[in-house]
Design brief:
There is one protein chain. About 30% of the residues lie in helices and about 30% in strands. The chain is α+β, with helices and mostly antiparallel strands and about 140 residues long.
Length: about 140
């Protein structure tokens, strides 16, 4: 089996740069999304938040794959200037927002949203044209 095919939707160099990708809901999507996020953040000289952003994207893409059968979108929005927050969105075609739950110590999953909530400046969900997006913001070193 070859590498996972994923589509680069766009990378635009303007004030408030952004990059966006679409991944099929297939095995390998999590690894591909993590690599895309790390690569783009390295290109933007934001290596200081790359590991955390990749980890949180992994959690959200994994959650989306558990429930969605359609494409999973990942979008990064870099703030203009040196201050602000990196915004990261993971979208899928299901309209239902994710539910944060309390995982028991013996549970093997169920901690993704807790990790996002505890590691980001703020996070939330919003409806999309089709489905929804879960987003979070990380502090960008100034």
């Amino acid at each position: 089996m070859g590498p996972l095919a994923w589509e680069v939707i766009g990378v635009i160099e303007t004030d408030g740069d952004w990059a966006e990708w679409s991944f099929p809901a297939e095995p390998g999507a999590v690894r591909a999304a993590r690599a895309a996020v790390r690569g783009q953040l390295h290109g933007w000289d934001l290596d200081g938040v790359a590991d955390l952003a990749a980890l949180l994207v992994s959690e959200l893409v994994t959650n989306a794959m558990r429930h969605a059968t359609g494409p999973i979108g990942v979008r990064l929005v870099r703030p203009a200037g040196l201050d602000g927050a990196l915004r990261v969105e993971v979208s899928d075609p299901l309209p239902d927002p994710p539910r944060e739950r309390v995982a028991r110590p013996e549970d093997e999953n169920g901690r993704g949203l807790q990790l996002v909530a505890g590691s980001s400046l703020r996070w939330g969900t919003r409806p999309g044209e089709t489905g929804k997006a879960v987003w979070f913001e990380l502090a960008v070193p100034g």
